[in-house]
Write a structure and sequence with these properties.
Number of helices: 3
Radius of gyration: 29 Å
Number of strands: 0
Strand content: under 5%
Structural class: mainly alpha
Distance between the termini: 94 Å
Helix content: 40-55%
Length: about 110
């Protein structure tokens, strides 16, 4: 093997080594959510406050994936207190909507 061939081979090996070192690392997940497919939990709970603007996003990104598996129970507490108050018409509409959903219609007002 000539000296030129040896130099070409070394350069190719160096390039290959450099290229493999430049590959992005595999993304890692925090250990709190990393699991193997065989690991399961019996129950998952969360509580917190969600703004009205984030409610649908919360549903689609968090809750929707659990709906088909069953066993999901939501406990909702709502508090509505706009500066200008709530009209009787809006209260009646809320009662009607609760009725249509088959939910408890008992709203309390102050």
């Amino acid at each position: 093997m000539e000296e030129t061939d040896t130099q070409v081979r070394i350069v190719r090996e160096d390039i290959a080594s450099f290229a493999s070192a430049q590959q992005p690392a595999e993304p890692t997940q925090p250990s709190a959510i990393a699991s193997t497919p065989d690991e399961t939990a019996d129950k998952l709970t969360w509580s917190g406050e969600i703004s009205a603007l984030k409610w649908m996003t919360f549903y689609s990104k968090v809750l929707a994936r659990f709906i088909t598996g069953g066993g999901i129970k939501l406990i909702v507490q709502m508090e509505i207190s706009p500066d200008k108050g709530i009209s009787k018409q809006k209260i009646d509409a809320a009662i009607l909507a609760l009725r249509e959903l088959g939910l408890n219609e008992d709203l309390s007002t102050e």
